[in-house]
Design a protein that fits this description.
59% helix, 388 residues, Tetrahydropterin Synthase, Chain A, alpha+beta, rod-shaped, disordered C terminus, 13 strands, three-stranded antiparallel beta sheet
């Protein structure tokens, strides 16, 4: 019993895969050999050669099939010369070595960097001084970094007219950039002239590439950065701050001017209008007094005595209209006065004096006569008050 238990506890050895494979391979080889021996007359050279030739020809012809994806173009060359440009889809060309095809993406946005290299998403771009340092018209050195985006618009021209399209575009961009920056001042490049400079660079690059028939369209030109070299960066920032302070003070002065000048103009216009109104008032009043005097003169020339009497009576009427005394004449021509007492009579006489005073201000001639007459009456009143 112990021996059986020990045999049962031993592990089963793994199968020998190599031996199994050799055994199956020998079996398959034997079957193939038996089939060949039984059908040996079918494998004669004169019988199998056409079949092999047909299969090889079919394989060779099928190798000319190719697929052009959407957005791509296929350029077919026959013995190295241009043959045709194929559109997206399934196409076929004569197999090698007669024809070959090159597929290019005409919708992909490609770009080149001039003056810097983008090393990664989170890393700072490395500046290339040989490409970025440029001289301006006012003999200042400036550090410019430019990015150009382009795409292919003609696959045939792109492959056959220019040997190195990207290298040519980069050299041309650097040349055009130096020419445009060289005829501009430093302040213009760093401030308000950025958009105009970019537009001019793009226009000149596209014109040159069209002259080369390079098959390239410039999509955009981006001025990544433009600033003076690091050695003078501090001084340049001070100059920028001073320029900004100057512009800020100018803006504040203009704002103050725009606020004060309209107020002054409004006050001036108001004073002119008031002066014109005063002038018109005085002229109208003087004109009215003149017309009244002329009418009075006409009446005076007709009958001087009656006119003088009427003027005298009107003056006395104005004089006594506001007085609180009533003068009565007796038969002996001796003046007697009656002085009304009480607050009501005083208020009545005061109310009557107000329109009389307003009328005295509007008539200068009558006022002079009334004042003289008042003085005369007051002189006459003094002795009468002393009588018992």
């Amino acid at each position: 019993m112990s021996t059986e238990n020990q045999n049962a506890s031993k592990p089963t050895p793994p199968p020998d895969w190599k031996a199994e494979f050799d055994k199956h391979w020998q079996r398959i080889s034997q079957l193939g050999s038996d089939f060949y021996q039984g059908h040996k007359h079918y494998f004669a050279l004169h019988k199998i050669a056409p079949l092999l030739g047909g299969v090889l020809a079919l394989v060779w012809l099928s190798s000319g099939c190719y697929i052009v994806d959407q957005g791509n173009r296929g350029v077919v060359t026959r013995f190295g010369a241009y043959s045709e440009t194929t559109q997206p889809g399934l196409n076929w060309h004569l197999p090698l070595p007669i024809e070959s095809v090159k597929i290019v993406n005409v919708e992909q946005q490609r770009f080149i960097e001039v003056g810097y290299r983008d090393t990664g998403r989170f890393a700072k771009a490395a500046t290339i001084p040989q490409e970025s340092l440029m001289l301006t018209r006012d003999e200042n050195i400036i550090n410019v970094r430019l990015a150009v985006q382009y795409q292919i618009n003609n696959a045939k021209d792109y492959f056959f007219n220019v040997k190195d399209n990207e290298g040519t575009l980069k050299q041309l961009t650097e040349s055009v950039e130096r020419a445009v920056i060289g005829k501009s001042d430093m302040d213009y490049v760093l401030t308000e002239g950025r958009s105009e400079i970019v537009a001019e660079i793009k226009r000149d690059i596209q014109s040159a590439m069209d002259a080369y028939h390079a098959g390239i369209t410039i999509a955009s030109v981006n001025l990544q950065d433009a600033q003076p070299p690091e050695e003078v960066q501090g001084s340049f920032e001070d100059a920028i701050r001073a320029r900004e302070d100057k512009q800020r003070l100018i803006n504040e002065a203009e704002a103050y001017s725009n606020e004060i000048i309209p107020k002054a103009r409004g006050a001036s216009a108001r004073l002119l209008q008031e002066a014109e109104a005063y002038q018109m008032e005085k002229i109208a009043k003087a004109t009215g007094e003149t017309e009244r005097f002329e009418q009075l003169l006409v009446e005076y020339e007709k009958n001087p005595a009656i006119t003088r009497k009427r003027l005298y009576l009107e003056a006395k009427e104005k004089l006594y209209r506001g007085a609180n005394k009533i003068m009565l004449e007796s038969e002996r021509n001796a003046p007697q006065f009656y002085m009304p007492l009480g607050a009501d009579s005083h208020r009545i006489t005061n109310n009557q004096a107000q329109p009389a005073a307003a009328e005295q201000n509007s008539d200068a001639v009558s006022d002079d006569k009334s004042h003289s007459h008042k003085a005369q009456v007051s002189n006459e009143l003094r002795p009468s008050r002393s009588k018992p």
